[in-house]
Amino acid sequence: MGVESKLVFDADYYDGFPSRKIKIGSKLEKIQKLIDEFKPDAVLVDRQRHFGVGALEAKIPLFVLLRGHYWSELYWNKRTMYKPLHKRLALLQWDKLGKEIFNGATVILPICRYLEKITNEYVPNKPTDVFLRG
Hints:
This protein has helices at residues 10-13, 27-38, 50-57, 70-79, 85-104, 113-122, and strands spanning 43-45, 62-66, 107-110. The protein is mainly alpha-helical. It has one domain (10-122). α2 packs across α3 and α3 (50-57) runs parallel beside α5. This is Glycosyl transferase.
């Protein structure tokens, strides 16, 4: 079939605020090096974090695997665990990243029809397709 893939831990290549890791240098340099070496036709991410933004900045088609109700998690995090100011700021940044990734994605791949319906409510003009596994 001639299909080649590479599995990477996203935070090893592209991590940013809020991060506990102190790094020197451009965040995009590491992902750009990976892109130059591997030359991917597409990137599949399973969380809404910095690696997806890096793929979008590099103009690579982004496929987002959605394994849970992202918007409900955000809602409840705001009202429970993320009430302190520093955690609230982190949550706002994560929400910003999530919106950028969902809006920039080529397609969003929820793992069930229920999540596809929810995704279509929150990101109505974005293609979705249920990613069944098992």
